[in-house]
Design goal:
Aminopeptidase_N-like_N, 31 strands, alpha+beta, single chain, hydrolase, globular, Immunoglobulin-like, eight-stranded mixed β-sheet, 27 helices, disordered N terminus, zinc, EC 3.4.11.2, Zincin-like fold
Length: 898
């Protein structure tokens, strides 16, 4: 299934409007797994805004061409080739009918039309529709679709497509049909069909204008009891979009369908969202608190796309963040509002912290490597490789900065104007920026650089206090430091950075802020400075005492702040900052500084020692009952090993692991009684509740258990974890207990309790694929030891009957978890992890290039590691480069090696 075509670089600068437009599409499917016949009737016309083309060129891949008709008559000048169909001498306005055949049963790429579990599904974004029928498969060609599905009624009793159901009925020979119409123009990437043996949870709700809507969550029959949370999340999403943005569901029905074989998390096809089962199925016994939260977020994300992505879509794939960055921002705001509303800043901050942790660990790393690219890329070889953290997460931060600059009301005004101008159109990131600027009467020309410059900006801060004049000056300087070459090439000048700041007095309270030149005092204690120059000084007046600055509050821009806080100052901020995000940030900085020092010592064999002040700072947070459990759990979680390794001039995962484990053991032993008290205080007896409050208690309790598992004598932790495992009435507590048992066992060369729990876990849940994914992942990410390296466990699990490389969830649960989430074991000096990685990338490339390309990115930062590790990674990359065939993987490894 691999694409062996020579890679061609596609550039944004080369964009040209399509020579032809398609106004209507009528598709007819005769669904047979090995030979599905597709009849495609289109109304085609020349584009008056494009250069006149001599012929019509349609995209098509892995299709068998049967025949063409124009205006009802056979058309002989249609020539099929490997990548499409060429039609010569076509009229200016005509009806084109094409008949072709595809083989969904053989489609392991899971792009286009494929069979999973005996059912038919589609995935068309970005370029899957061309695997279904010949078409102008580009997002700026928008048409209305009517779809007729025909199939065996016994084998495929449910037939679904986009929009509204017009008609259904029986046919001869045990077949039946359904006809669907989507009244809204859409690009082909939003097309979907589903056919199979499915059942639905249904709800009828009324929209804000009083119209009745049918909501359905379709799953395989044995999963129906796991759909309630997804349905509730959909209802909440509909209500939230009406209230926050005035956007109403525009179809008579909205459907979600769950499939176990899916490359992505979910897909926003108009009215028929197809989801990975991971983001639909949940009940207390099978899903963790994180799963429940992720389902709510992803259901929201795909529903919000109905307007930000479907009603207004991308002109071309370079504009991908127009829909994805904007919709990630919307789903983040939705989740924050579900957790804390508009007023509970502590609850909202917990969500903010979680989002920024992901951004820093994954997107900042992307900015530092060979795949660095702007939010709006300038070129690509394979578009599937640009569904990246930069497009999604940094794109979301760019959208958030508009709201930071203009406030909620100003942002809403901009969104309203955006829809008024562009509903039903395929547009650009610049169109979005212009709508926000015009609605708020602002010139945002400089803000465009956030879309066109790659790399993570760095803001260095200098401060000066003049006691006699009671003036406090803050000088900001922006740049990119030692950005990756791919990022340096795109930098054109200073950015407009909304930089939120507060000043804290010696009593721990915020000071009122008045900038020089302002005529009246203000009670405001956080100001957003519009930082637009390479270097800029802001002076606050009437500052009665020398303050401590609280910088970049609520992470108001996706930048790295450089300011030389002392350890005592960080401890003070951790104790007193009124901004919850910066309170957490102070603790992370304190921990990171200490861990980096210890990692440096570990790399040279020097004995490790942790300052008592760090233990004291952690103890204050652990025992501070005024802080929410969810916040304390995040504040007490050490920075990840992957993040810490990236902060080193030369990444040394083994040294980082030694340092981090040393700190965890020190905190465990020094605060043993405190951890035990927290564990007891934050139990959640009774029936499971999937609420943020209950989840916060479970998170803090289970963090305490994970620290107790680090004790020099872990017997008590093993007893607690075993009892928790046996008594658990929910997956959150059961999985946490199993994880604690595995890590306690790692320090002691294994344990009977851990193995018994592993065996029991599998027996309990062997018919629940998503839970078995957790079973694989827990083993792939366990700590391991020299006597029992995790690579040996992973290789053995590859032969387990439940493992299937063709299923993306299963591949991610074992292979990706080991390669991306267990750095100390993956980066073993013997290079076994790299050899394993190479073998799996090559194997996946032959099955599913999109999944293979994601795995390939595990080694893209290879040049930043120690010499021994670099050599092993380079050899593995060269092996992959010599063996793979897909554009997807070749682009990744060739950029890494270049």
């Amino acid at each position: 299934m691999a694409d062996t075509a020579t890679p061609n670089v596609i550039r944004r600068a080369d964009y040209a409007p399509p020579a032809f437009l398609i106004d209507t599409v009528a598709l007819e499917f005769d669904l047979v797994p090995e030979r599905t016949v597709v009849r495609n009737t289109m109304r085609v016309r020349r584009n008056p805004d494009a250069s006149r083309a001599a012929h019509l060129e349609l995209m098509g891949e892995q299709l068998e061409f049967v025949g063409a008709q124009i205006d009802g008559l056979p058309f002989a000048n249609a020539h099929a080739h490997e990548h499409g169909l060429l039609l010569d001498n076509v009229p200016d306005n005509f009806e084109l009918t094409l008949t072709s055949v595809c083989n969904p049963a053989a489609n392991t790429t899971l792009s286009g039309l494929y069979v999973s579990g005996g059912n038919f599904f589609t995935q068309c974004e970005a370029e899957g529709f061309r695997r279904i029928t010949y078409f102008l498969d580009r997002p700026d060609v928008m048409a209305t679709f009517t779809v007729t599905l025909r199939a065996s009624k016994a084998d495929y009793p449910v037939l679904l497509s986009n929009g509204n159901l017009l008609e259904e009925g029986d046919l001869p020979d045990g077949r039946h049909f359904a006809r669907w119409e989507d009244p809204f123009r859409k690009p082909s990437y939003l097309f979907a069909l589903v056919a199979g043996k499915l059942v639905a949870l249904e709800e009828r709700v009324k929209s804000g204008s009083g119209k009745e809507k049918l909501l359905q969550v379709w799953v395989e029959p044995h999963d129906l009891d796991k759909t309630r949370h997804a349905m509730d999340s959909l209802i909440h999403s509909i209500r939230w979009d009406e209230e926050r943005f005035g956007l109403e569901l525009d179809l008579d029905r909205f459907m979600i369908v769950a499939v176990s074989d899916f490359n992505m998390g979910a897909m926003e096809n108009k009215g028929l969202n197809i989801f990975n089962t991971k983001y639909v199925l949940a009940n207390p016994e099978t899903a963790t608190d994180t799963d429940f939260a992720n389902i709510e977020a992803v259901v929201g994300h795909e529903y919000f796309h109905n307007w930000t992505g479907n009603r207004v879509t991308c002109r071309d794939w370079f504009q991908l963040s127009l829909k994805e960055g904007l919709t990630v921002f919307r789903d983040q705001e939705f989740s924050a509002d579900m957790a804390g509303g508009a007023t509970d800043e502590a609850a909202r901050a917990t969500k903010r912290i979680e989002d920024v942790r992901v951004l820093r660990q994954m997107q900042f790393a992307e900015d530092a490597g060979p795949m660095a690219h702007p939010v709006r890329p300038e070129s690509y070889v394979e578009i599937n490789n640009f569904y990246t953290m930069t497009v999604y997460e940094k794109g979301s931060e760019v959208v958030r900065m508009y709201q930071t600059l203009f406030g909620r009301d100003g942002f809403r005004k901009g969104m309203d104007l955006y829809f008024k101008r562009h509903d039903g159109q395929a547009v650009t990131c610049d169109d979005f920026r212009h709508a926000l600027a015009d609605a708020n009467g602002r010139d945002l020309a400089q803000f465009e650089r956030w879309y066109s410059q790659a790399g993570t900006p760095r803001v260095s801060v200098r401060t000066r206090y003049d006691a006699a004049q009671q003036r406090y000056s803050v000088t900001l300087r922006q740049g990119y430091g030692d950005a990756a070459p791919a990022a340096r090439e795109t930098q054109k000048g200073p950015l407009l950075i909304p930089f939120a700041i507060g000043l804290i007095g010696k009593d721990g309270n915020d000071l009122p802020l008045r900038l020089e030149g302002e005529t009246k005092a203000s009670a405001v204690t956080t100001r957003v400075l519009e930082f637009t120059q390479t270097e800029q000084t802001f002076t606050f007046v009437d500052v009665a005492e020398e303050p401590l600055p609280s910088l970049l509050r609520n992470f108001s821009a996706p930048v790295i702040v450089e300011y030389d806080y002392s350890a005592d100052q960080l401890a003070f901020l951790l104790a007193h900052d009124s901004d919850p995000f910066n309170r957490w940030e102070a603790g992370q900085r304190l921990a990171t500084r200490e861990l980096m020092t210890l990692a440096g010592r570990a790399a040279t064999g020097v004995a490790l020692q942790l300052d008592d002040s760090v233990v004291a700072a952690f103890a204050r947070v652990l025992t501070d009952e005024t802080l929410s459990p969810a916040f304390r759990e995040l504040a007490l979680m050490l920075p990840s090993e992957a993040y810490l390794a990236e902060q080193m001039a030369e990444s040394n995962p083994a040294a980082v692991h030694a340092a981090r484990q040393f700190v965890r053991k020190r905190l465990a032993n020094a605060l043993r009684h405190e951890w035990l008290n927290v564990y007891e205080q934050h139990r959640t007896p009774g029936a499971y509740e999937a609420t943020p409050e209950a989840g916060g208690h479970r998170a803090l309790k289970n963090l305490a258990l994970s620290y107790l598992a680090e004790l020099d004598d872990p017997a008590e932790a093993v007893r607690l974890a075993s009892a928790q495992y046996d008594a658990a009435n929910n997956m959150t507590d059961r999985a946490a207990a199993l994880s604690a048992l595995l890590n306690a066992a790692a320090a002691n060369g294994g344990s009977a309790e851990a193995q018994q729990a592993l065996d029991d876990f599998y027996r309990r849940f062997e018919k629940e694929p998503l839970v078995i994914d957790k079973w694989f992942a827990l083993q792939a990410t366990q700590r391991g030891s020299a006597q029992r390296p995790v690579i040996d466990i992973v290789r053995k699990l590859m032969t387990h009957p439940a493992f299937n490389l063709k299923n993306p969830n299963r591949a991610r649960s074992l292979i990706f978890s080991f390669c991306a989430a267990n750095p100390a074991q993956f980066h073993a000096e013997d290079g076994a992890g790299y050899a394993f990685w190479a073998d799996q990338v090559i194997a996946l490339d032959a099955i599913n290039p999109q999944v293979a390309a994601r795995l390939a990115r595990s080694l893209e930062l290879w040049r930043r590691f120690t010499p021994t590790l670099r050599e092993g990674m380079r050899a593995a990359l060269e092996k992959v480069a010599s063996r793979v065939k897909s554009r997807d993987v070749r682009e990744i490894v060739e950029k890494a090696l270049a």
